[in-house]
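Subject: complex prediction, re-run

Hi both,

The earlier run crashed halfway through, so I resubmitted it with identical inputs.
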Amino acid sequence: MRSVKFFKVPDILLLFLLVMAPLYALITRTPLAPQEPVAVVEIAGVPRYSIPLDKEQEIRLREWNPPVVLKTQPGKIRILENDCNKQICVRTGYIDKTDELIVCVPKKILIYIQQGKNEQQNSDIKAITG
Amino acid sequence: MSSRTAISKPSPDSSTRKEAHLVGLIALGLLLFLFEAYIPKPVPWLKLGLANVVTLIALYWYGGKAALLVSISRILIGSVFTGNLLTPGFFLSLGGGLCAVSAMILLYHSRLFGIWGVSMGGAAFHSLGQILVGYFVLFDNPVILQILPYLIFYSILSGTLIGWIGYLLIKRLEKEFAF
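This time it finished cleanly. Structure:
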């Protein structure tokens, strides 16, 4: 009968490999870049613009005259100027979370955020079963 | 008598004995698998792989084909018992199991490694197989790949323990059954 051995010298090599390979992977890995938030502007129900919220800027929507002015800051967006009666959308101010909305009913504008602040914190996997 | 000669020159007696042994091993593996499936665990997928002891025994007694048979049968029948058949968890198990058995067969037939190495390699490849199935088949989310290094560290521990148990059992059964 082939004698059964618990330990042979190459086992140490295998152990070394199994320690070093994951260690190497852990040391050299680049953290996954968190996806930056994006504001989606829908006009009359159609997604028209997708604005990355990475810097401060003003955007003029020239579909109207005078144009609707959007203002972005890193991670958030608001409507700055809009020529409408009740100014509800302007008074909404900045939004920065995924389930927040800016709505202008008269002009049928809808602005919402994808990958907003609250979503990024929760994007890790919760559980795998098996 | 060597396990290899038992395969190459089967007498009616030894082949019947082999069948009986394999069926017994599958049943035993199933028992361990179910036992482990029902005890509470800190994280659902962090298992010790107790049933792998049985795969080790099959491998050392009857070689690679037997180990494959025992392991795949256990995964299939076990998933019926736990109600996981054809769920994502089942495919994770199957991917992990296939990878593990293949690695163990290769390590065993290289004749370079002891049970420790065979068991540890099997455990590591079990993690690898699960992660690969998880990434390429089920979730397509690179976050999954990030847990692989930790799983491999863990598999060193579990593989060592399982290898030790398997070693003791094989030694003990050798005397009991006088192969």
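Chain A is about 25% helix and 30% strand.

- K.
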